[in-house]
């Protein structure tokens, strides 16, 4: 497996694990709680074994946007390789979404992918009411959009970034260890149905100190990438913010991770490593 693929996986696995929710109708209900703040920035380091191979940032725009008449957060996840790794596999990717401030459902998502010489620019339009998704990809030769692909969904669906945000809204105190969260979402032109196990609470040692957390374990399908079905663990802060603090993945080729180094919320002072 290429190092750039590993970096992308670790940056996005929190989102990849949190697409939708058990069942939905439209209009979707408001989320249980709203932990997101306009202007919030979360910074992470990406590691493989003992080495730092990249960095990631989750940024919520300080202003709200209107999409199809809905007030939306604009949230971006950015991932980059760093240091000597750039000589092997240079990555500079951006994943974004415009997400309803009440329901956390996306109305538009986008990806800007730069991996060595490879480029991809993609926009996804969500018609949640009519259960339709439109996928638009720019032709790298002409600079214009190719013919759109239209998909029918079985229920309102989330993309990666809105899925990451949705995980932060759940009431984990009402769950029992072993409870399963069922999730439904889209990535590129494929739909996925995932399960995540709630694994209880744990005090986690981080760069920001010892923090009480909720522990989640995505159940991965059979693959040649991860070492077992429970190879990935996600830790969210055990507070009203439910900030993703750490992701750890046991890969077939070794252990990879993504850990928070700093955060900035409007009501907080900047905290650094």
Record the SSE blueprint:
Layout: H1 3-16, E1 41-48, E2 51-60, E3 65-67, E4 70-81, E5 92-100, E6 106-115, E7 118-127, E8 132-137, E9 149-152, H2 160-167, E10 180-187, E11 190-206, E12 209-219, E13 232-237, E14 244-251, E15 254-264
Antiparallel strand pairs: 1-2, 1-15, 2-4, 3-4, 4-5, 5-6, 6-7, 7-8, 8-9, 10-11, 11-12, 12-13, 13-14, 14-15
Question: Can you characterise this structure?
Answer:
The protein is mainly beta and 273 residues long. It has two helices and 15 strands. The protein has helices at residues 3-16, 160-167; strands spanning 41-48, 51-60, 65-67, 70-81, 92-100, 106-115, 118-127, 132-137, 149-152, 180-187, 190-206, 209-219, 232-237, 244-251, 254-264. The protein has a 15-stranded antiparallel sheet that branches. A hairpin with a 4-residue loop joins strand 7 (118-127) and strand 8 (132-137). Helix 1 crosses helix 2 (160-167). The radius of gyration is 18 Å and the shape is globular. The protein starts with a helix and ends in a 9-residue tail after the last strand. Residues 1-23 and 269-273 have low confidence and may be disordered.
